[in-house]
Q: What sequence folds into this?
């Protein structure tokens, strides 16, 4: 029998390198986007094991560190944390171009057989691993040029669509464009016989740069100017876009996998929460399965995972999809990297067991609060209302980060035995701490 996921993660000590700002997700990270990415990185502490070095582009909060380490049953000395004094909004590898910071990281791994476990293995991060003299997690050495080319190509909307079509997978129709004029001409030519469209950056994440088009609201002249204005707002990004027909999905399911030298395995399948097109959370397993959504999506995911394995691409990835009211399931994109759910899956394997999906349901999301609360205030309310995670019952609410002083937003995980259970926990949580939306 092969190793399970936790055994794979703990085979060697890791530098857990949480570069949510990376070249795979967006070409040129704007300040506000990068700041939002950086402040959530504390959450990855729950994926660390004894001897690991956690590297994050934000200051580690003392109260959250104590809470998280107690949750996973580790003493304070078990994990070394290298953080930044303020949210760092450029790719994390550049922080270690400073000689003093590089020496600090190098000293932390001295004498250990470390590997670098990166959130998004872009070229600056691979270069850093080379300078440190350690391989990327899952590989015997640094990834080859051909492997890195796959990372960069498939982490674009057009790159994934082309590959999915080659693999015979059902994929949402889309066309690649390089200018506002070409987008305008494609829309007004009646592409996909649609009346509503969505323009996306070819390389982008979390809904950044999305433009919604409803032809009923425009005449042709107004539409052309509207497209130019919207693309001008993200003019710092490459002139590389994908146009898709708008489809009113009733669910946005996703399947996550881990690929290693022994092959791909499904880690979990979920329904994503994507208000306004930006990912905020998920419910696992999917909520709408009357059309065998999970079985079909996992089958498509494995086809994709086998392709990656055959080409020597290892690590975490997901495949996102959309489900229509009549049961049509189409793939929309991949995130060939860790995702916003990877850390939650690892955490639940630690708290419940490798086969937790057979017995448990989980829901993760975030909401702004009406009142200003401290992290400790939230924990006190959870305990008072008997909502907090109960180790014996394996049920309850876990706070997955502390960004309250930055954005007054509570990030949480509800764990229970059914969808109705975790939704009820979420409702009680909202009442206890006061969601603002």
A:
């Amino acid at each position: 029998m092969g190793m399970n996921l936790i055994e794979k993660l703990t085979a060697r000590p890791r530098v857990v390198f949480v570069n949510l700002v990376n070249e795979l997700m967006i070409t040129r990270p704007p300040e506000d986007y990068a700041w939002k990415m950086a402040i959530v990185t504390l959450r990855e502490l729950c994926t660390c094991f004894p001897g690991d070095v956690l590297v994050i582009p934000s200051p580690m909060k003392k109260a959250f560190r104590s809470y998280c380490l107690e949750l996973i049953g580790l003493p304070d000395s078990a994990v070394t944390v290298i953080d930044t004094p303020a949210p760092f909004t450029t790719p994390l590898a550049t922080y270690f171009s400073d000689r003093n910071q590089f020496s600090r990281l190098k000293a932390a791994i001295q004498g250990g057989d470390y590997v670098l476990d990166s959130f998004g293995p872009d070229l600056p991060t691979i270069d850093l691993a080379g300078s440190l003299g350690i391989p990327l997690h899952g590989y015997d050495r640094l990834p080859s040029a051909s492997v890195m080319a796959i990372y960069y190509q498939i982490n674009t909307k057009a790159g994934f669509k082309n590959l999915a079509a080659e693999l015979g997978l059902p994929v949402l129709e889309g066309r690649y464009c390089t200018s506002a004029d070409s987008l305008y001409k494609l829309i007004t030519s009646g592409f996909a016989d649609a009346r509503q469209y969505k323009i996306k950056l070819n390389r982008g994440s979390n809904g950044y740069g999305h433009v919604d088009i409803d032809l009923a609201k425009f005449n042709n002249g107004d539409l052309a100017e509207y497209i130019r204005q919207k693309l001008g707002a993200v003019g710092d990004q490459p002139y590389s876009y994908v146009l898709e027909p708008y489809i009113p999905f009733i669910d946005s399911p996703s399947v996550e996998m881990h690929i290693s030298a022994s092959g791909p395995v499904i880690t979990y399948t979920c329904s994503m929460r994507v208000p306004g097109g930006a990912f905020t959370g998920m419910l696992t397993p999917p909520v709408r399965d009357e059309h065998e959504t999970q079985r079909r999506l996992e089958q498509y995911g494995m086809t994709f995972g086998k392709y990656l394995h055959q080409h020597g691409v290892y690590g975490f990835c997901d495949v996102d999809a959309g489900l229509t009211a009549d049961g049509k399931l189409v793939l929309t994109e991949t995130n060939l990297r860790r995702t916003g759910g990877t850390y939650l899956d690892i955490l639940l394997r630690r708290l419940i067991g490798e086969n937790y999906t057979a017995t448990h349901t989980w829901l993760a999301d975030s909401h702004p609060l009406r009142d200003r609360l401290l992290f400790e205030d939230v924990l006190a309310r959870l305990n008072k209302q008997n909502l907090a995670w109960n180790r014996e019952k394996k049920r309850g609410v876990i706070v997955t980060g502390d960004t309250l002083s930055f954005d007054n937003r509570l990030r949480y995980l509800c764990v229970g035995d059914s969808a109705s259970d975790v939704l009820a926990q979420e409702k009680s949580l909202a009442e206890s701490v006061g969601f603002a939306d």
DSSP finds 14 helices and 16 strands in the chain. The first helix runs from residue 5 to 9. The mean pLDDT is 96.
